[in-house]
Amino acid sequence: xxxxxxxxxxxxxxxxxxxxxxxxxxxxxxxxxxxxxxxxxxxxxxxxxxxxxxxxxxxxxxxxxxxxxxxxxxxxxxxxxxxxxxxxxxxxxxxxxxxxxxxxxxxxxxxxxxxxxxxxxxxxxxxxxxxxxxxxxxxxxxxxxxxxxxxxxxxxxxxxxxxxxxxxxxxxxxxxxxxxxxxxxxxxxxxxxxxxxxxxxxxxxxxxxxxxxxxxxxxxxxxxxxxxxxxxxxxxxxxxxxxxxxxxxxxxxxxxxxxxxxxxxxxxxxxxxxxxxxxxxxxxxxxxxxxxxxxxxxxxxxxxxxxxxxxxxxxxxxxxxxxxxxxxxxxxxxxxx
Length: 337
Fold this sequence. Notes:
Elements: H1 12-28, E1 35-42, E2 44-45, H2 51-66, E3 72-75, H3 98-108, H4 110-120, H5 124-151, E4 155-157, E5 160-164, E6 167-178, E7 184-189, E8 215-217, E9 220-226, H6 233-241, E10 246-252, H7 259-266, H8 269-276, E11 279-289, E12 292-294, E13 299-301, E14 313-316, E15 324-331, H9 333-336
Parallel strand pairs: 1-3, 2-11, 3-4, 9-10, 10-11
Antiparallel strand pairs: 1-15, 4-6, 5-6, 6-7, 8-9, 11-12, 11-13, 13-14
């Protein structure tokens, strides 16, 4: 049985009431110590007018996921990236590309960014992220700490640009887990930046593979891969060798969801899941940031032999362009035998 428990964020009650019966039936068939429910929030990436606007959007997705009493909630990559423009909506008026958006923000804050460029010898766009880093981290941390603690549920909060004291001139694409008590743990840093994250784009820093580590979320051990890192077999194997039973890929695909693109994504986490014999979750950010489309299908995956349909997919979003929550119950006894 392939679970199709998902729906638009604007229409939860009807769609979720139908899916809940299936979910309850699936859960009852599993022993208490091996059942594990994952909810992946396919969330829109967008700029925010205020901290409260961001917090409300994340809380809306969390509330939709919590209807299924999940053991883990996952948000997509770059969920915190738009916070770099917080308070700067005026600078983005009329902007039609991500490159122009960054240029507009740099221009507005040149007085603060110029000295950072000189001090660290970095590009203006890197300096922009360094300048905004503390504010971005504070809003991201406050928001997810609150919703994880309020709902008493471990939450893998997608990713956010972040700087560290030990590398003051670097900005990494960082994924954090928030415990059911709201405590933040850095669990992954992106090792393989894609084109828009390189020097000619956002100019983010590549991390090292050892900067990603499995973590315990309830009664499961989870490993996180930030988007393109799922195409690195060695990174995935390292996490599984260290005990990961579920591999989560937080992603934001800055491309149209064509047949060619779908085939390319099939070579990522889905293939790692087949190779390593664990469960997988690909959580996608969708939307349009100043003309740049983000499209993709959130999936919960398993080895093909564990799925009735034989396609290695337990559940998936119905659309590559709309917000949804995708839920599946995982039987961890298949891994722990």
